[in-house]
TrEMBL record:
Family assignment from sequence similarity: Belongs to the acyl-CoA dehydrogenase family.
Name this protein carries in UniProt: Glutaryl-CoA dehydrogenase
Keyword Secreted: no
Classification via Pfam families: Acyl-CoA_dh_1, Acyl-CoA_dh_M, Acyl-CoA_dh_N
Residue ranges constituting the Acyl-CoA oxidase/dehydrogenase middle domain according to the UniProt record: 133-226
GO molecular function: acyl-CoA dehydrogenase activity; flavin adenine dinucleotide binding
Length: 392
């Protein structure tokens, strides 16, 4: 059974997925249309997360679909990307929750955990029974995390003592565990720790006043003498290079999420253009509106093509940092253009939540920046094509 193709899939890219993958895509689409779309604007407006949907996300299999211990069926990176697209076209905030839980928190355990840790944590996180977060960014280090990480880890016998601060940590206000990245004071290498949020000395405070991805609960984290046993240290993480492996896997899926957000704005603008009349006919019949819609479709189609190929490279074991970086940089830039044109088509109504573009317009700014800014991703690609690092 093949999922019904989206009209925006102009070149029929989805046809390359397997029948089982397509069936799952249809299930994701129906769940998001039924359970997420009706509440998305209200949750965004109130800046509250809909916890009641988490069990349904677990049942869908979108949490931990990369890992043998938590996936529902054998699947491809292209499928996982298309799943992010489907979720992103309805609500980028919920998609971000899934990305943090599945890609970053579970990804850190999947990449850096021992066999025992993977078997202990991934199945429960995949069912949504345990919520995770990913604590890398700090108040004074974002793009320069590789060199500028200030949170420290000091070994004390069979335990570690963590001190420092993290910022912009999604899911952290209600997470059960946070993956904390800290610099070992003994060897100056970055290590990862599964930190239960009830541990003494750990505090997470919600960041207020956001105007993008408002449903996502981002937090400031403070770690003051947080003691964790060595068994909660990610056993296969030995340096920041291992952290970068996790980020490479998730960066391409952020590109897919960006395409989904652009599609949601385009679909809303297209529907509006067919209904809104000016000068005696629907604005969809005016040349300038058709031009904007065509530009939106072109951006979306080119971005899907790029994302499909970068995911294919991952399936083949050939994806490098530069491939994921170019996909993220390109797709988010084209998304930013597309949501702007969609809002332009709607005129003043485009800034109202009720018309389906304003939320996506605002959310685009966060997607454009996280998982590496356009500039940082450009430098990753630049290093690959010139052989020279130009980060500083």
């Amino acid at each position: 059974m093949l999922a019904r193709s989206l009209e925006v899939d102009f070149f029929h890219f989805q046809d390359s997925l397997t029948a089982r993958e397509n069936t799952s895509i249809l299930e994701i689409r129906e769940f998001f249309d039924t359970h997420v779309r009706p509440i998305a604007d209200d949750c965004w407006d109130r800046a509250e997360f809909p916890h009641e949907i988490v069990p349904g996300l677990g049942n869908l299999g979108v949490l931990g679909s990369s890992w043998e211990e938590s996936r529902h069926f054998e699947n491809s990176a292209r499928y996982r990307g298309w799943a992010a697209l489907e979720m992103g076209r309805v609500d980028a905030s919920v998609t971000t929750f899934v990305g943090v839980q599945s890609g970053l928190a579970m990804g850190a355990i999947g990449v850096g955990g021992s066999d025992v840790q993977r078997k202990e944590w991934l199945p429960r996180m995949g069912r949504g029974e345990i919520i995770g977060a990913f604590g890398l960014t700090e108040p004074l280090s974002g793009s320069d995390s590789a060199r500028g990480l200030r949170t420290t880890a000091a070994r004390r016998g069979d335990t570690w003592v963590l001190d420092g601060a993290k910022r912009w940590i999604g899911n952290a206000t209600f997470a059960d565990v946070v993956i904390i990245w800290a610099r070992d004071v003994a060897d100056d290498q970055v290590k990862g720790f599964i930190v239960p949020t009830e541990t003494p000395g750990f505090t997470a405070t919600k960041i207020e006043g956001k105007q993008s991805l408002r449903t996502v609960q981002n937090a400031d984290i403070v770690l003051q003498g947080v003691v964790v046993p060595d068994e909660l240290r990610l056993q296969e993480i030995h340096s920041f290079r291992d952290v970068a492996t996790v980020l490479r896997l998730t960066r391409a899926e952020v590109a897919w999420q960006a395409v989904g957000n652009a599609i949601g704005a385009y679909e809303a603008a297209l529907a509006y253009a067919k209904e809104r009349e000016q000068f005696g006919k629907p604005i969809a019949a005016h040349q300038l509106v058709q031009d904007l819609l065509t530009r939106c479709l072109g951006n979306i189609t080119a971005s899907i093509a790029l994302c499909m190929q970068v995911s294919q490279l991952l399936d083949e074991g050939r994806q490098g940092d530069e491939h994921a970086a170019l996909a993220k940089s390109f797709a988010t830039s084209r998304m930013r253009e597309t949501v702007g044109w969609a809002r332009e088509i709607m005129g003043g109504n485009g800034i109202l939540l009720d018309y389906g573009v304003a939320r996506r317009f605002a959310d685009a700014e966060a997607i454009y920046s996280f998982e590496g800014t356009r500039e940082m991703n450009s430098l990753i690609v630049g290093r690959a094509i010139t052989g020279h690092a130009a980060f500083v």
